[in-house]
Design brief:
The chain is built from 20 helices and 34 strands. By secondary structure, the protein is α+β, with helices and mostly antiparallel strands. Helix 4 runs antiparallel to helix 18 and helix 14 runs antiparallel to helix 16. The chain is globular and about 75 Å long. Keywords: Coiled coil, Cytoplasm, Exonuclease, Hydrolase, Nuclease, RNA-binding.
């Protein structure tokens, strides 16, 4: 049946010059016997999945030849959306804008069919309307329940869903208003009717401790606890390695292997070793926990890991892919313990080229666990006490530094893009209250591990590609020309440009980053550039990695926390004996890997979004104590409704155009600017501004600022507060540079006074009408 599906699609894409009925299709394809009897069932399956489209005259065609596009809807809380095509055949096939009246009844992340109204040219977007909803994405929705006399409704936490869920009377009996609930959709929305649902779970009441993070977990369908049978399977795993398990493995327990991780890491899946060879080259050993030995295919552990796809690192907890007995125990490369590993030994010359390599199973014993902080203090800050304490490993650490620089220089020469965004980490107290924002900057220690893992991933990917074995690659495709045109428009404002926008090379983007390094506009251009690139994903075919300028790339180095890495290990292990696998096994892998890659990519994105949301939530909660405070910031976004400002500590908020009372401001998209009609004052990307924090909303994850120049009345209000001055506590510290920096401090004012400031800071209604795009 699979073969017939492929035959039908191939025929309709290449040979059928017009839509055909099922009978015409059978006649043109000369189907007989079993294929003819299966035809109607296969056509029904293809049509239900939108692989082919049925017209009102009962004829079938493929979407791409009917001015139709199948893709996923990314909705906005403003009522419009964009459809991201599943298949992009040319660079001009951009995302499709869907206006509010073209949304049908589709909801965020639904799989839909779109009729395209305006075709794109270079740098031009497309628009269209949704004509069919193929698959609904939001079968369960998290939101706040409100009751009335005859019915209730749930307002989704995710504002992009755009509509409340109607709850019939029977569903409201025991649920109080204001409760956070999980509702299962029983009837999908239609043009003049809301969706209906049934309450499946009451999470708690709005305002309960931890309820917002629990809501985020549920909204992204992230599992918290392991099923009993999975937990039991993990309990059956051994605590130590037996001699029988060592048989057939290379014994590397004599090597001074080390791990380098964050201080709070508990699942250590990579160890490293570097030795300078007599010929001047370096031997780099990368040793990855042999998780595939303990998690065998089709076991309950494997099925659970496959479903989860990834570990999720939220601001207050970790939701591991594997039970902790495995991830923190026998699979974790804990110092002083014998552990099974999958190893890569690579000989690397002074140009960073891998001239020789071996991939093999091993047994290792990590000699020392280092933290990033300790390695940085030894190699960068030259801490004499730490150098003396780790004297026996100092030579290896220095070799690691040299090799790291060689590998990075090689990557830069071939044109890789190197973004260096600081990571925000919110530190919580024991009650979950945010007490500090830490800005983690990549240092030499992080770079050492990053470069070593990158070269190991490339080596394994190239090895498996040459074996012609079905495999899972990590791919990053070339960017859309439309987004490159918009990026180029931004660059022109800062005296930069791309020579080509339809065939951009990663080296050209990195050249721009080098030119703007250290300038005020660096963060802005880097952010827009990153947003202009496609998302990396997993794929069962090798498509290369644009951002790394790598022909071959995979994920081999984190099987404890990423399911694709576990699959990579499993396939690699099968090739160790003969260098190949059976034809039957290849066919099975070829059939299952595309689905694994797709599911893993989806779970990775859900995890990343949940992680960002929890950090955003706690960031907003943290900033609540600084309402009324003055800050220096940089404009990192300009829209028709206002400007986004980023503070030194990485926190972002919005200055609404309605609060800019000194003039009427018009949005000029080409210049990424708001320009005053009378004063001609310009607010553009990268400009430094002074703002006052006026409002925070943890529920909406919003922070509102007002420009100092527009807010004399706020200053007067703050200046009238009782004397006593400001406490001088740190609001944020920088980690990685070695220097703490005070960015914000709490105002010593009462809750009542703060509320008074917020009340006065509410934006006044304006009649500004931004120019239409």
């Amino acid at each position: 049946m699979i073969v017939l599906k492929d035959k039908i699609l191939e025929f309709m894409r290449t040979e059928a010059y017009k839509p055909l009925t099922a009978e015409e299709l059978a006649e043109h394809m000369e189907l007989k016997g079993t294929e003819l009897s299966e035809l109607w069932k296969v056509i029904e399956e293809l049509e239900s999945n939108a692989d082919i489209i049925k017209t009102r005259y009962d004829k079938y065609g493929v979407p791409e030849r009917m001015n139709l596009v199948v893709g996923k809807l990314s909705a906005s809380n403003k009522g419009y959306g964009f459809v991201i095509p599943e298949k992009v055949r040319t660079p001009n096939e951009t995302d499709i804008f869907i206006p509010p009246d073209g949304m049908m009844s589709a909801m965020h992340h639904d799989r839909v069919v779109v009729r395209v109204h305006t075709q794109s040219g270079q740098g031009k977007s497309r628009d269209g309307e949704i004509i069919r909803i193929v698959k609904r994405a939001n079968t369960r929705i998290v939101g706040t329940y409100e009751a009335s006399r005859n019915f209730g409704f749930v307002t989704p936490d995710d504002l992009r869903l755009g509509q409340d869920i109607f709850i019939p009377k029977d569903g409201q009996n025991i649920v109080p208003s204001g409760a956070k609930v999980v509702v299962e959709v029983t009837k999908w929305p239609e043009k003049k009717r809301s969706a209906e649902g049934k309450i499946m779970e009451v999470l708690g009441n709005t305002g309960d401790s931890g309820i917002e993070i629990l809501s985020i977990i549920k909204r992204h369908n992230l599992p918290i606890d392991f099923p009993a049978e999975v937990a039991q399977a993990a309990e059956n795993a051994p605590d130590t390695i037996s001699e029988d398990e060592i048989s057939g493995r290379r014994d590397l327990r004599h090597l001074p292997i080390v791990t380098i991780d964050g201080e709070d890491a508990k699942d250590l899946d990579d160890g490293v070793y570097v030795e300078r060879l007599k010929n001047g080259n370096y031997l780099l050993g990368v040793y990855i926990a042999d998780v595939s030995y303990y998690v065998r295919e089709n076991t309950v552990l494997d099925k659970e890991a496959s479903e989860r796809g990834t570990s999720v690192y939220l601001v207050d907890r970790v939701l591991p892919m594997l039970p902790r007995r495995l991830s923190n125990g026998i699979c974790s490369l804990n110092a002083g313990e014998d552990r099974l590993a999958m190893s890569a030994h690579m000989e690397i010359d002074h140009k960073g080229q891998v001239v020789k390599y071996e991939l093999f199973p091993s047994v290792i014993r990590v000699q020392k666990r280092f933290s990033y902080t300790v390695v940085r203090k030894i190699l960068v800050e030259h801490d004499e006490e730490l150098i003396h304490e780790h004297q026996e490993l100092l030579g290896q650490l220095e070799n690691m530094e040299r090799l790291c620089r060689i590998l990075r220089e090689r990557r830069m020469r071939r044109g890789a893009i190197d973004f260096d965004f600081p990571e925000l980490k919110v530190k919580l107290d024991e009650t979950g209250k945010p007490i500090e924002i830490i800005k983690r900057v990549r240092s030499l220690a992080e770079s050492i591990i990053e470069e070593f893992m990158l070269v190991a991933n490339e080596t394994v990917a190239e090895h498996m590609h040459k074996l012609k074995v079905p495999f899972v690659f990590r791919v990053h495709e070339e960017p859309d020309s439309e987004k490159m045109v918009k990026l180029n428009n931004l660059l022109h404002n800062f005296g930069q440009s791309l020579s080509k926008v339809d065939e951009v090379q990663p080296a050209a983007l990195q050249k721009i980053l080098n030119h703007i390094s250290g300038r005020p506009e660096e963060r802005i251009i880097s952010t827009v550039m990153l947003r202009s690139l496609k998302q990396a994903r997993y794929e069962a075919q090798n498509l290369g990695h644009f951002g790394l300028a790598a022909t071959y790339y995979t994920h081999f180095t984190s099987p404890i926390r990423r399911y694709p890495d576990l699959i990579v290990h499993r396939i690699l292990r099968e090739t160790f004996n003969s260098g190949d696998i059976s034809t039957k096994r290849k066919a099975k892998l070829a059939a299952m890997l595309p689905e694994i890659a797709l599911h893993s990519s989806e779970r990775e994105r859900a995890a990343a979004e949940a992680e960002r949301e929890t950090v955003s939530l706690k960031t907003v909660e943290y900033m609540a104590q600084f309402v009324g405070e003055h800050f220096d910031g940089i404009i990192n976004g300009v829209t028709a409704f206002g400007i986004f400002v980023e503070l030194d500590n990485g926190v972002e908020g919005l200055v609404r155009v309605s609060s800019m009372e000194d003039d009427y401001y018009q949005y000029v998209e080409e210049q990424y600017s708001l320009i005053g009609e009378r004063s001609h004052k310009i607010y553009r990307l990268g400009d430094a501004v002074k703002v006052i924090l006026t409002r925070v909303s943890p529920e909406e994850r919003n922070i509102d600022f007002v420009l100092e120049s527009n807010s004399a009345w706020i200053e007067r209000s703050i200046n009238r507060r009782p004397s006593g001055g400001r406490p001088q506590g740190n609001g944020v510290k920088s980690e990685g540079s070695g220097n703490g920096r005070r960015t914000v401090s709490a105002a010593n004012k009462s809750s009542k006074a703060r509320k008074a400031v917020v009340s006065r800071a509410k934006p006044k209604p304006r009649r500004n009408k931004p120019k239409k795009k």
